[in-house]
Design brief:
The complex is a heterodimer of chains A (167) and B (196). With 167 residues, chain A is mainly β. Helix content of chain A is 13%, strand content 37%. Chain A has 3 helices and 11 strands. In chain A, the strands form 2 sheets. In chain A, strands 1, 2, 3, 4, 5, 6, 9 and 11 form an 8-stranded antiparallel sheet that branches. A 3-stranded antiparallel sheet of chain A has the order 8-7-10, with no helix packed on it. In chain B, the strands form 2 sheets. A 7-stranded antiparallel sheet of chain B has the order 1-8-5-10-4-3-2, covered by helices on one side. Chain B has a 3-stranded antiparallel sheet with strand order 7-6-9, with no helix packed on it. The chains are: A mainly beta (167), B alpha+beta (196).
Chain lengths: 167, 196
């Protein structure tokens, strides 16, 4: 099941998130390959907020302060990571993958900006990149992201977590 | 003009690869490089400032400074001050043949560019263009809008440098210069030192 929540934070907070992540204070790290270690003829910048049971950045606090744990009904976090891909001439699909195979774990993707990139699934379903949209699905569902060709960048935040409710 | 194809020694390049690719060196998104047409990712090593102090702002500074220092010693280049140093990552942009011609500083200075990765598509992908025109003699602004066709026609290419990992070039900063955008699938890492 794929659940889509639009206007997840509202204009004021979503604008602040976008502005903050594109500010000169926000660090991005270069990744030569996407999804796997094998070359994909593409690259991205990432920022890990939370991993291996602990915050990895001061910006984790900012994110949590926005109430994301409560809004997503998160019981336990696995990982939070932001991805940034610059514009390409035409849309490039990143490989299909699962974030991990933990049972009953969910993946949520938050779209920081609107663009013509999208998240696609093995069964052909597509979720468009719309600013302030959150899409939630089981972490073991094959999915992939893309670049965009109509805006300067595509930026998302990925959450992997165990929810407070039964999946 | 100095071109040293093995200006970065192998040991230093290995360390640079380690910190740069899937490593701890962080970049910041900048919506404006020479103009808002060309956003890029940058890591500042030395802040621009108008004082006599070289303001180091990165824990990774020494890695790149050591390369710069070896290069200047090897080529017997004297310097008094580093005006600014950074690492830039430029991403593909097929809209333009070149980005905005510009000079980095208004004052007399030298430009040292270290090429930190190989580009995979064509020789022109990510190439540095150095023009005959100089600042302020050409009576042009520091940054010239590549979208202004008539203005760009005034520029004539003096040198075109193919980016190649480990290559370092050094030239008089009064010459306008720019880059050919990387082709799709490429990205271009350089470290720039402006010095006097």
């Amino acid at each position: 099941m794929i659940k889509i929540i639009d206007n997840f934070y509202g204009d004021m907070v979503s604008n602040a998130i976008q502005k903050g992540m594109l500010s000169l204070d926000f660090p991005w790290f270069f990744c030569e390959n996407i999804v796997s270690k094998s070359p994909t003829n593409n690259f991205q910048f990432t920022h890990v907020f939370y991993k291996e049971g602990e915050p990895k950045t001061d910006f984790y606090t900012d994110l949590v302060t926005l109430g994301v744990l409560k809004k997503l009904e998160i019981a336990a976090l696995v990982k939070i990571k932001a991805n940034f891909q610059s514009k390409t001439e035409s849309i490039i699909k990143n490989p299909l993958h699962v974030d991990h195979s933990f049972p009953n774990c969910l993946t949520a993707i938050y779209y920081v900006n609107t663009n013509n990139g999208f998240t696609y699934f093995e069964d052909g379903k597509v979720v468009e990149s719309v600013k302030d949209r959150m899409v939630i699905f089981s972490s073991n569902m094959l999915h992939g992201g893309t670049t965009c060709s109509d805006k300067k960048y595509r930026c998302v935040i990925n959450f992997n977590f165990y929810p407070t409710y039964e999946v | 003009m100095i071109i040293d194809v093995s200006g970065i020694d192998k040991e230093d390049q290995s360390l640079i690869d380690f910190v740069l690719v899937d490593g701890p060196l962080n970049f910041q998104y900048s919506a404006c490089s020479t103009s808002y047409r060309f956003p890029f990712m940058s890591h500042v090593l030395v802040n621009r400032n108008n004082t006599d102090i070289t303001e180091i702002v990165s824990p990774f500074y020494k890695i790149f400074y050591d390369v710069f220092d070896k290069f200047t010693k090897k080529h017997q280049i004297n310097y008094n001050k580093i005006l600014r140093a950074c690492i830039n990552c430029t991403v593909p942009d097929e809209r333009y043949e070149m980005m905005d011609p510009h000079v980095d500083q208004e004052i007399d200075h030298q430009v040292c560019i270290m090429y930190l990765n190989n580009l995979s598509t064509t020789d022109t992908s990510g190439a540095t263009l150095i023009f005959d025109q100089t600042f302020p003699d050409a009576n042009l602004d520091e940054v010239c809008d590549v979208g202004n066709v008539e203005l760009i026609k005034k520029f004539t290419i003096k040198e075109e440098i193919v980016p190649k990992k480990r290559k370092i070039i050094c030239f008089d900063g009064k010459h306008y210069h720019t880059i050919r955008p990387p082709k799709n699938g490429d990205y271009r890492f350089i470290s720039i030192f402006n010095f006097v």
